[in-house]
Amino acid sequence: MSAPALPAMLGQNLKNHKNNRLIKIAKKQMEQLILPAASHTAGQITLPGSKSISNRTLLLAALSNGSTQIRGCLASDDTDRMLEALQSLGLDVKNMGENNFEMTGNGGSFTVKQSDLFLGNAGTAFRPLTAALALSNGHYTLSGVPRMHERPIGDLVEALRQAGAQIDYLGNDGFPPLKISPANIDLSKPIKIRGDVSSQFLTALLMALPLTKQQSTIEVVGELISKPYIEITLNLMARFGVQVKRDGWQRFTIPANSQYQSPALIEVEGDASSASYFLAAGAIGGSVSVKGIGEDSIQGDVKFADALKLMGASITYGNNSIMALKPTSGKLKAIDLDCNHIPDAAMTLAILALFAEGTTVLRNIASWRVKETDRISAMATELRKVGAIVEEGADYIKITPPAQLTPNAVIDTYDDHRMAMCFSLVSLGGVPITINDPKCVNKTFPEYFQRFAEIVKP
362-392 burial, b for 16+ CB within 10 Å, e for fewer? Predict the structure, then answer.
């Protein structure tokens, strides 16, 4: 399921697309993508599958009784790493073509009890697999790329150790790579876990604990960030037959003898985080519709559309689609917003701040610092290259747009797919922009730049 190489994809796009001038590519090893100045957008985009839903669904299908057909799974580096890991662990996975898979579940018990797994920079694979394997009575090592080894996992490991899991650090304490050994699991006491670092830690625990067949309780210490991602987890667990009882956002209980059962068929929603770039393009340059999600999406990032409304854009919901139109006044408005509910899509708001009247403040985004890169620092650095005045704090960023965007800025992407996709929007301000390492979008959206070219008009 490897994503096609970016040069081949872009080459095909340039052959097929009438407006070849929209994309110019540096010749040397395809390391840069130059987007020319533009100002108008129109069209419709069909979204790729959600990364969050895809990787959760793949793991839940693997842990369930029965066979599950998964339709519309995201084709990306992150899902490739999850699929490779599951196959290494003995799962029977059939690629049915067109991003559809059939997974025969293991009933909650991995047949392979010793394996070395490489998971790249896929947090949505690394964290839940850590928890599931820690409760699976086997010998495993989990490693990734250097950046993955800089992303904290100590709070999850500590939570699992409270239950008796045997997990050792193979490098720096609190960070991957990890060694997992067989253990006697005791869930007679609640597991306590911090909620203010990454919601993926709580997701990992929730998805793994049914494997023990014991009643288990998780208590969240402090404020839980990124709550909508926990909603996705709970929703999908319920579709696989495990109902989690919860007391607000502080206490979660999984009943004894819980067991995942295949729902037979799961259709993956379009990725709401990816939708944000195209909806933003519509709000900046004209009108763009995204197909694959609607107002009733289970993804929290669908609320990005509400933030666009606050900025003055017009939003229309259709049957499994959302359309964004440029404000009638022609100018977006600055906002001051708590972004805890849309942590990934909030990055797109940072770019929209360049097109807004006034100073935009995005708050409660501390989780940005432990993502694929330190996104607060990276965003501030790159926004300054295009002329913005930026103030960054531990959990906020404040952006004042320049009177005129700086043309021909060269944007570093930090091996972070969202940095590359976000900064493509700067070209809609009538200035050329160069994106370094555009292939980093393979993590979640290998065809992003082709799709972006389709909605940019002369």
Answer: bbbbbbbbbbbbbbbebbbebbebbbbebeb
- Other beta carbons within 10 angstroms of residue 150's beta carbon come to 16
* Residue found under tokens 């926004």: 383
Task: Locate 423 and state its tokens.
Answer: 């900064």
Two tokens, residue 394? 């531990």
Largest CA distance in the chain: 64
Q: Enumerate the H helices of 163-314 as residue ranges.
A: 199-208, 227-239, 272-285, 304-310
Edge to edge, what strands does the sheet with 360-363 contain? 336-338, 360-363, 396-400, 389-392
- Residue whose pair of structure tokens reads 């200035």 in the numeric block: 431
The answer to whether 373 touches 356, Cβ cutoff 8 Å, is: no
Which residue in 454, 445, 408, 429 sits closest to 32, CA to CA?
408
Amino acid at 422: C
pLDDT of residue 140: 98
Cis peptide upstream of residue 48 (ω within 30 degrees of 0): no
339's tokens: 């972004």
H helices present in 27-70, as ranges: 51-63
| Helix H or strand E segment including 358 | none
3-class secondary-structure state, position 43? strand
The span from the CA of 289 to the CA of 413, in Å, is 26
Known catalytic residue at 77:
no
Closest CA to 421 of 368, 367, 379, 362: 379
**Residue 329 pLDDT grade (very low, low, confident, very high; cuts 50, 70, 90):** confident
Average pLDDT over residues 275-288: 98
Residues ≥6 apart with Cβ < 8 Å to 62: 86, 89, 91, 103, 105, 106
Non-local CB neighbours of 140 within 8 Å, separated by 6+ positions = 114, 115, 116, 117, 133, 179, 180
Which of 77, 344, 416, 437 is catalytic? The answer is: 344
247 Cβ contact partners less than 8 Å away, ≥ 6 residues apart: none
Q: What is the pLDDT of residue 126?
A: 98
Going edge to edge, which strands form the sheet with 433-436? Answer: 24-25, 32-35, 433-436, 409-411
| Straight-line distance from the first to the last Cα atom of the chain, in angstroms, rounded to the nearest whole number | 35
pLDDT tens, 80-135? Answer: 999 999 999 999 999 999 999 999 999 999 999 999 999 999 999 999 999 999 99
